[in-house]
Design brief:
The complex is a heterodimer. By secondary structure, chain A is mostly helical. Chain A is about 75% helix and about 0% strand. Chain A has helices at about 5-25, 30-55, 65-80, 85-110, 115-130, 135, 160-180, 185-195, 195-200, 205-230, 240-255, 260-275, 285-300, 305-315, and strands spanning about 150, 155. The chains are: A mainly alpha, B alpha/beta.
Amino acid sequence: MTHREKASFIALTVFLAVFPWIAGMSRSFGHYIDVMIFAGIFCLVTLGLSLLMGFAGQISLAQAAFFGIGAYGSGILTGHFHWNPWAALLASAGAAAAVAWIVGVPALRLKGHYLAMATLGFGVIVHIVMNEEVDWTGGPSGLGGIPGMSCAGRKISGDAAWFYLVWAFVLAAFLFSRHVLHSRIGRALRAIHDDEKAAEAMGVPVSILKVQVFVYSAVLASVGGSLYAHYVSFLSPGSFDLMWSVRFVLMVVVGGMQSLWGALVGTVLLTFIGNEWLQVFADFEILVYGGILLVMALFVPQGLVVWLDALVRSKARPVSTPSDNGS
Amino acid sequence: MDENAVRSADPVLELRDVRMHFGGVVALKGVSASIPRGIIQSVIGPNGAGKTTLLNCVSGLLTPSSGGVVFQGEPVQGKPPHEIARRGMSRTFQHVALFPRMSVRENVMVGRHARTRAGFWASGFRLPFMRTEEARIRSDAEAWLDFVGLGAERDLPAGALPLGKQKILEIARALATDPVLILLDEPAGGLNTRETEELGELLKRIQQKGVTVVLVEHDMNLVMDISDRVLVLHFGQVLACGSPAEIKDNPDVIQAYLGEDWANGGGGPHGRSSDSEKEEMSC
């Protein structure tokens, strides 16, 4: 990692470590811990999606469906079959991986945005299954009675414990993704993004790599879904529909596709906007989302993180000495 | 190695009646050729003769409509390009196709992809073998950059290099795949005289490493200077094939492509087309 990146990562870790404590001090901000838990869960989805969009150059409109496979998988396996939650999490992730592979192989062999189309259809199918398989999923009235989780023999209870568990997952996924990006695989992905034909001629198996990234994004989304199921303990199909897939895409776009930091920033920001600050708009929320997307596409197409980074650098330039190599 | 000694007698690449048509347009009308190991084989011909199409058919970017491409004794037509690259064939592109946002070094590092193996998991967990491999990829890439003379530029973004150096970088990237055969599509296009001379020397050094070179080029001085054999394509067919001296004296080639003036060593007054291509033999 560069110094700058290392510093950012340490700052993030410290911020997360003290966040529940600081937020807990004030009555009016106490529930921000809860919002941040959701933001963390969504970050798992968007980290994978940002790898897929920003580096493999593909859009998936089924991330809410994979999120749902994780959630319902965990909910059903622990609720109906009394599995251990961790085993259920792994099994659901395996199922999501298998499904992503089946959907991804034909779609990603073709050049162009066939994955967006295939995942659009797939997401709708999954949503229908959640609504119709009443015996298993509870249908539109939902699936309740999902047990909590325990870690190292201790039950996870209370917002602070959940906060740390979820964000530990996020940091792990962030580091894993970052390592992948700075490896042979990540180089090949960036090469595909710059010039697919040249990458292929240099021996990079383009479609295999795209499928791998898609499967990875599905696994992360599924893990997020499993955590979600145990945290909220009640699932209804409305949390896994196409609108949520679009929201995940929007989170990545707002933060910036070309950077994993973008996924984190965009997700936290939009979760706060959606859960907290936009509640006053009620049914018109969708219009506000559309407005955000429009403004971003027109004025900040590279995303907030890249834009802010450039802003900071341009402001810092007159101050820094010529020998400065800290960037 | 013994195996190599035995194999060196075989052609490294054989084209068997390769035909390519795009709808009604016939780009290749049955090209057959056999390219021995270790030579510099040039392919020349007017624009639209099918040279780039031929390279694309050989390297897997196109699947020939019919006919066979046999690389190191095995048919490869219809195989995906990355598979063909893995078998030891690499190439450059007529219109520079680098990864512009990546550094010069990283561009060459991508060339090592097929020769290394750390996958998704190994990379994500930074397993020890992956770290050693990564360091090795880096030093191999730097060695190739030194070989082509781009060592000083290795940290620059590839897109920031002048065109001449981008062309050389493409060659370094192709070499990093450890090719047996390298296909170069107009590497001298856009280079000045001095750069072209340096390119000629570089191609000789590549040949000395035992790599077979197929060179598609319009710069006749370069072609006649360094080639062991020259193949002339004309309207998707082989018009002639032989040593540079034979090609220079071949009346068909002179009429179709080189022009009388080139044979006489003079300038090129026959401005058949307005685009000032080198093939109009001003050289």
